[in-house]
Amino acid sequence: MNTLLRIAIQKSGRLQEGSLELLKESGLSISNGKDQLKTQARNFPVEVLFLRDDDIPQYVEDQVADIGIVGENVFAEKKKDNRLIKRLDFSKCRLSMAVPRGENYTGVQWLQGKNIATSYPNIVKGFLAKHNVEAGIHEISGSVEIAPGIGLADAICDIVSTGSTLLSNGLQEVEIVMQSEAVIIASPTLSPEKQKILDKLLFRIEAVKKAKNSKYILLNCPNESIEKITQVIPGMKSPTIIPLTRAGWSSLHSVVDENDFWERIDQLREFGAEGILVVPIEKMIV
Ligand SMILES: Nc1ncnc2c1ncn2[C@@H]1O[C@H](COP(=O)(O)OP(=O)(O)OP(=O)(O)O)[C@@H](O)[C@H]1O
Ligand SMILES: O=P(O)(O)OC[C@H]1O[C@H](OP(=O)(O)OP(=O)(O)O)[C@H](O)[C@@H]1O
Ligand SMILES: [Mg+2]
């Protein structure tokens, strides 16, 4: 029988779309019917399991799944026998402490002797121990932000992204406990056949991730600026230079990092670049 790598992803929720999109952009042809909990890629030796995200670390530890995509917060909370093998740049959020607005929060010591509602008791325990604070932990599985308002707790520790849930529940964020994003976790041991499939998949994922963080850039510039512009956008090896029919001018093609994109554009314009075109890159193999 042919070996299949089993990948567990969230059935529905905040991670589902990003996880499926990543696998599809990596060239895997996957059909996901509404109530389908298991499917095999048509063109790659992979089987996808659709599960509750909280259960994924256990499935990976038990080797029911070989790898899984979860939030780093869930990986840290569950403390299962999993390896974190790749950060994926989506579902970015933070796990934060929040207290009712209007409370005079003076620092972590404020939490001493208080009650904290959270779905992440292990992470909160670790945070409190690190700061030598003793507090009660009230574990609830959802709608955590409601807890102070109904007298269930003095503070909460939950996921924050835009902060709008905190705002609409009259809470203020006071401590960032951890930053999180979607990650790939793997069981500690994989057979050589499965490891080979995983390596192939990780290579593709890296190409997709790099492409998302980069843009292809084309511009026209006077020949005397080529050297300076090359220093600003060196590209993968070096830019491509194509002479224009207009004497003394060239077209320069390169790759630019999404993160410092606007800064680079300003520098390029200073050096006389004109007709700048910026286009997305679909895959990038270095
Ligand atoms: N507002 C947000 N912005 C960005 N990422 C988020 C946000 N909320 C949650 N996440 C990330 O997505 C993960 C899944 O969140 P979701 O709310 O879908 O979980 P859930 O309700 O526990 O789902 P399930 O039904 O699978 O148990 C979280 O563990 C976190 O890493
Ligand atoms: O800072 P914000 O942008 O408001 O996001 C934070 C909220 O997002 C998540 O809940 P979600 O909306 O996924 O609903 P859930 O309670 O069903 O998990 C999380 O549990 C927070 O409540
Ligand atoms: Mg869950």
TrEMBL record:
Enzyme Commission number: 2.4.2.17
Sequence ranges assigned to domain ATP phosphoribosyltransferase catalytic in this UniProt record: 52-206
Localization of this protein: Cytoplasm
Keyword line: Amino-acid biosynthesis, ATP-binding, Cytoplasm, Glycosyltransferase, Histidine biosynthesis, Magnesium, Metal-binding, Nucleotide-binding, Transferase
Keyword Cytoplasm: yes
Molecular-function GO terms, alphabetical: ATP binding; ATP phosphoribosyltransferase activity; magnesium ion binding
Record pathway: Amino-acid biosynthesis; L-histidine biosynthesis; L-histidine from 5-phospho-alpha-D-ribose 1-diphosphate: step 1/9
PROSITE patterns assigned: ATP_P_PHORIBOSYLTR
Identification of the protein by name: ATP phosphoribosyltransferase
Lineage, highest ranks first: Bacteria, Pseudomonadati, Bacteroidota, Cytophagia, Cytophagales
Recorded name of the encoding gene: hisG
